[in-house]
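Example S7 (structure tokens).
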């Protein structure tokens, strides 16, 4: 579900890679969210000096595991949203640099996880098979949690963020780079290596000055978390609304028909 690999051959210290490993699409189940939260919060205490989040070639994460989540009751969904908020906060406030190695498609929850990292390196794909990233929650009847919109606006600006989330747009990696949603493009087989290299560069900087300035520059991002519990309650309520349930069940039926 989550593979942990320590790049220990780094002169500045260990760079820990957390690789999502939940085939076929690294969809975010409550168990995977919980495991990722635990791994992110433990990394620094366990000696890691930087983090890389990665996925499988062609797929970083397909976002929330809607078919599974539809089987859960109110308490379980509330717990899932609570852990997801804690994961976002942990990434936004990480005491060590975090790079997202977007090894392929990153819709919805996959994009959300990447948003809170310091740097996003995405696989460039091809004209025949472009990789895509975006916050398309509205297309499955799920209103975007406010903290996620605020975080996206911090990265790409209010106007661009409004356009992307209101229309539920999915961008190619090149389009995402053009609007600043990702910071760098690379061949899929080089994405993780580039992420590790970025971490190496960060760790070569004078550590006290780097960490002070990094924390200063990211304070506004961390400040987006100012009403967690109210938002968790609202997200849980929206999940069980008639419109959202109908839209998500239609999505699951459509996916099942494609497989059939």
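Recovered sequence:
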């Amino acid at each position: 579900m989550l593979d942990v690999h320590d790049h220990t051959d780094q002169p500045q210290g260990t760079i820990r890679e957390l690789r999502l490993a939940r085939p076929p699409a690294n969809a975010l189940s409550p168990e995977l969210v919980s495991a990722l939260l635990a791994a992110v919060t433990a990394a620094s205490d366990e000696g890691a000096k930087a983090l890389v989040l990665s996925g499988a070639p062609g797929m970083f994460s397909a976002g929330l595991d809607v078919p599974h989540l539809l089987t859960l009751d109110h308490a379980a969904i509330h717990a899932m949203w609570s852990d997801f908020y804690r994961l976002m906060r942990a990434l936004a406030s990480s005491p060590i640099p975090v790079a997202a190695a977007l090894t392929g498609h990153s819709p919805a929850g996959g994009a959300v996880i990447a948003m809170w990292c310091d740097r996003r390196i995405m696989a460039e794909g091809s004209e025949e098979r472009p990789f895509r990233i975006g916050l398309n929650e509205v297309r499955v009847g799920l209103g975007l949690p406010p903290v996620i919109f605020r975080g996206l606006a911090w990265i790409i600006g209010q106007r661009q963020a409004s356009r992307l989330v209101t229309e539920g747009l999915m961008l190619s990696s090149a389009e995402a780079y053009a609007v600043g949603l990702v910071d760098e493009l690379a061949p899929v087989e080089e994405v993780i290596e580039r992420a590790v290299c970025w971490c190496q560069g960060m760790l070569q900087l004078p550590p006290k000055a780097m960490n002070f300035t990094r924390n200063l520059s990211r304070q506004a991002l961390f400040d987006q978390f100012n009403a967690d519990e109210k938002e968790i309650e609202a997200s849980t309520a929206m999940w069980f609304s008639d419109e959202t349930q109908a839209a998500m069940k239609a999505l699951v039926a459509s996916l099942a028909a494609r497989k059939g």
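Notes on this example. The two ends are 26 Å apart (CA to CA).
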